[in-house]
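Q: For a teaching handout, I want to show students what a protein-ligand complex looks like in token form. Below are the inputs, and the small molecule is magnesium ion. Please produce the holo structure.
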Amino acid sequence: MIEVRNLCKYFRNSDSLITKALDDINLVIPDGQCVLIAGANGSGKSLLMRLIAKLEKPTKGSVETSEDVGLVFQDADAQILADTPLEDVMFGLRRNKKLSKDEAKAKALKALSDVGLSDKANSPSHFLSGGEKRRLAVASVMALGRKILILDEVYINLD
Ligand SMILES: Nc1ncnc2c1ncn2[C@@H]1O[C@H](COP(=O)(O)OP(=O)(O)OP(=O)(O)O)[C@@H](O)[C@H]1O
Ligand SMILES: [Mg+2]
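A: Here is the structure, written as tokens, with magnesium ion included.
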């Protein structure tokens, strides 16, 4: 479950100018629901998702989630940290789940297979196509087995 109450996020652009990127947002998403959030460029969708995933702190208000959140970023490049897809998925599993190297490798290979990237597992990540980078980001998040998944720009670059 996700519960957003009176959520505000303000940015100070200069001494006199404050951007109210999110202003008093209220949202409850019960277990088992799939919700699509649509809005204009710059309306605050990605920011809301980062706040729900606890990657940012609210200026005011609160965000509560029943479980840790898996977030696939809008920009896949910002999410890929390691030199190869296999290392990238393993990195998240080792850091977040404290798995052994062998366990992490087995889970990572399964996740890469699920998104059709088995043959690129040991290729340089930066040579992946836009859609392949997106698939890698999805694999890294899916491998963690999070029950709450947020996909920012769900179809971007994907066929
Ligand atoms: N760290 C920051 N500092 C200053 N302004 C920010 C920051 N993060 C976001 N913003 C501003 O908040 C607003 C909302 O940005 P956000 O990325 O959430 O939009 P979006 O709805 O996801 O847009 P798009 O459809 O283009 O992805 C924008 O005007 C952006 O410039
Ligand atoms: Mg966005």
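A: Two things your students might notice: The pocket of magnesium ion (ligand 2) is lined by residues 45-46, 74, 152 (CB under 6 Å). The longest helix spans residues 101-114.
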